[in-house]
Amino acid sequence: MELTNFRDQLFAKGEKLGITDLEVYYEKQDSFSCKVFKGEVDGYESSSVRGVSVRGVYQDKMGYAYTEKLDEESVSFLLNSVQENAALMEEEPEELFEGNVDYQDYDFFSPALTDVSAEEKLALVKEIEAKILAYDERVVQVGYAALSDQSIEKAIFNNKGLALQDKNNFLYVIFSVTVKEGEEIKSGFSFKLTKDFATLNADEIAKEAVEKSLSQLGGKEYPNKKYPVIFQNFAASSLVATFVSSFSAEYVQKGQSQLKGKLGEKIASDHVTLSDNPFLPEGTQSGTFDSEGVPTREVTVVENGELKTYFHNLKTAKKDGVESTGHGYKSSYKGTIEVTPSNFYVVPTENKYEDLYSGLEEGIIITDLQGLHSGANPISGDFSLAANGFYVKDGKIAGPTNLMTIAGNFFDVLKDVEQVADDLEFSPGGGVGFIGSPSIKVKSLSVTVD
Amino acid sequence: MLNKSLIEDVLSAALTTGGDFSEVFVEDRYTNNMKLQGGRLETNLSGRDFGVGIRVFKGLQSVYAFTNDFSQEGLIQAAKTAAQAIQGAPTDKTIVLPMEKQTLQTLHPIELLPNSVEKTRKLAVMRKANEIVTNYDPSIAQGIISVVDEEQNILVANSEGTFAEDKRVRSRMSIVAVASDGSDMQTGHYGPGAHQGFEFIENLDLNHYAKEAARIAVTMLNADPAPSGKFPVIIDNEFGGVIFHEACGHGLEASSVAKNNSVFANRVGEKVASDLVTYIDDGTLPNEWGSLNIDDEGEKTRKNTLIENGILKGYMIDKFNARRMNAESTGSGRRESYKFAPTSRMTNTYIAPGKSTPEEIIANTEHGIYAKYMGGGSVNTATGDYNFAINEAYLVKNGKIDKPLRGATLVGNGAKTIQKIDMVGNNLGHGAGMCGASSGSLPVNVGQPMVRVSEITVGGTEA
């Protein structure tokens, strides 16, 4: 069944059942991915999936349901579920957005990207894998050599007149490398995301992945104590990503954020500015409206350490007596409206990465963090995480450390940021929003070396 | 779910470019997700997932396509797109499936299908759990209770004549207690689940599970920062098994073994663990959270002994990796949904019980760490390096459990840690979890009796 037909049936039958406000949120995702192992195609996947979620007000309460099967049986399933689910809710219903406002004029869809053939994509992955294997004899394995692209179409319709459509696409490659010297095994990776296939340089990507891995060989034990710590850009962005819910008004209002009551206060050092930009050309979350249909806009959340605003959707904004910031997003058609960032990042400065450690007598550089989903408490901000990285002596990188754990509190880290570099990168990890950071230097953290 | 002749046409279309194996996986799944937070029902969502996955092999090449366009044209088109990636000699094979689907005697009887139960009945149980949590102690700020259930109907057919259907019904309750003393917040969690209907939720011993979640949160509020360094570590039963799930289980999956990307590859018959360790994956345990009648490739699940008295016996193998390894499937091919090609995964994995009593293990430990409840963690399967959070930890002093500790993380190497197990208890228990890997997020049980590891690095906040 076509979407318009499905929507019309749903609106018509919904009205008969006494469902007053009704909204259809539609998403269609076309994807391609391929993986290579030792020159052979190891994975090859193509897909086309669509889904519809419906929310509606029945007897002054709002109910939600979704389906991936667009047929008549599903129309009944959705409407019955909306009625049954609404009956149990105690909350005021969310308001549907009527629209009638201006939206920014941006296009995040690159038609050229869809013209790249599967053969070309596969050839690039094979080329990079071969270059990695040939780069150094200590390379024992390319654990992961993959390319993936996605094209996402979104549409929102409601029976109050809102009708919006949007499209975004992007492509990324990721390579992980295992290197071995003696009995020591280390791994590293390279990740690149783009809308322009021609910018992917096989030599650069191979070099980055191998050099990152090789640089970790020869790990040593160092004393367990507090050190000045530099988080490299990927590590810093994955740390920010872990605690991003603190900036959501939803968590603040539920009392699950340490930033509650801190608007207008200094929550970070002067060096920290955090910005959310839904119009970044290469942002995976870029778009001109959120999942409620509210226009998106650029928002400075923290400016030189001062907390300026939380992220809001219509419901949290109403509760706080402010305007929605355009952050009412659904993780997919399967989810409900939450409050999450779009493309959110620590704003870079002019400092070079090297400047962050060149003045240190002694310090630790963190290249990557593990265990973020388990070793961190997103509410309290406490973390105790496994990490890889380097030991710094007299302003120079002395060499890699054995596996470390670093422990501290995210909100203390924000206050202890002493320098921010110019090398902004966005984290490849999934999760909420698209989160980035340059490398940052923190006054001191507790480090344990295995 | 799809008629037989259409499946046969799709299987045949997928082989037109010279593939030597094709497979169709159809899924129709109803899910419900309810969350009660601070006494209010915050989430109440119902959904229907439906789609088809098509897989083609040629030798060691594998192609996957999935769609939820279930029209004849849509499915044939998806099969042809997949076939395009296979560059073999064009063929014109016609696949004919058996007349009747394989009939299964279920090992996991279901009494109450989730969608046959009124949501008010589910909410009543959730409210009861919330009441127990919030009444436990004045420092409890709130309870977060969720019930997730699903009915997953699947059909698997392949060009070798497999033609089978299965119904998987799962229910899980998650209880989170948040305790606060004004400045600090700590959480406690318990999440029992089963391959069972609503009868599982209704019969849960809430007095045990909800109270434990609350007790953990309150205990952690009054805990001291954990020390750092190397200690003997005692890990208790049930969800404690997560550490060996990550540190050893993943390294025993064919998805890492087949490509030599595991420290356990090519070592069958060798001693890889302490003599005290027998490690088993068993997808047949009745109604357990990770159990299945057939895997997502249509193979019957079974009891696979992975390590016996320290000797590596075998791996968990799916159909595709079986080709690379020159081995047979062990009924371990799993996927989150039609959106994932299956690969080798765990079901219910556990360390078999030993002879020591928990009391003996603690009494024999002079100075160490006792991990009563583990949190989550992860492992790099190439190196075996792992990291874990301990949700409820204690110092052990002179053979007695001493003060509670917070912020403790365990880091180490799986292959080394299983050699250092020096005591195994007699109190085997299983705990439900969700395991994420390349074929998606899957329900699995982890399990073990209490075990002691002679030395693990503990990373605490007290440097």
TrEMBL record, chain A:
Q: Which residues form the Metalloprotease TldD/E C-terminal domain?
A: 225-448
Q: Which residues form the Metalloprotease TldD/E central domain?
A: 113-217
This protein is called PmbA protein
Which ranges carry the Metalloprotease TldD/E N-terminal domain?
A: 23-79
GO process terms (BP): proteolysis
- InterPro entries assigned to the protein according to its UniProt record, in alphabetical order: Metalloprtase-TldD/E_C, Metalloprtase-TldD/E_cen_dom, Metalloprtase-TldD/E_N, PmbA, TldD/PmbA_N, TldD/PmbA_sf
Question: What sections of the sequence does the record tag as coiled-coil?
Answer: none
**MF (Gene Ontology):** metallopeptidase activity
Q: Which family does it belong to?
A: Belongs to the peptidase U62 family.
Q: Which GO terms describe its cellular component?
A: cytosol
UniProtKB/TrEMBL annotation, chain B:
Tell me which SUPFAM superfamilies the record gives: Putative modulator of DNA gyrase, PmbA/TldD
Residue span(s) of domain Metalloprotease TldD/E C-terminal: 228-460
Q: Which domain of life is it from?
A: Bacteria
Query: Which Gene Ontology cellular component annotation is one that this UniProt entry carries?
Result: cytosol
InterPro entries membership:
Metalloprtase-TldD/E_C, Metalloprtase-TldD/E_cen_dom, Metalloprtase-TldD/E_N, Peptidase_U62_metallo, TldD, TldD/PmbA_N, TldD/PmbA_sf
Keywords linked to the UniProt accession: Hydrolase, Metalloprotease, Protease
Q: Where is the Metalloprotease TldD/E central domain?
A: 114-221
Segments forming domain Metalloprotease TldD/E N-terminal:
23-85
| One function term, GO molecular function aspect | metallopeptidase activity
A GO term (biological process) for this protein?
A: proteolysis
Q: Name one Pfam family in it.
A: PmbA_TldD_2nd
**Which Gene3D superfamilies does this UniProt record tie to the protein?**
PmbA/TldD superfamily (3.30.2290.10)
Give the family this protein belongs to, as stated in its UniProt record.
Belongs to the peptidase U62 family.
User: What is this protein identified as?
Assistant: TldD protein
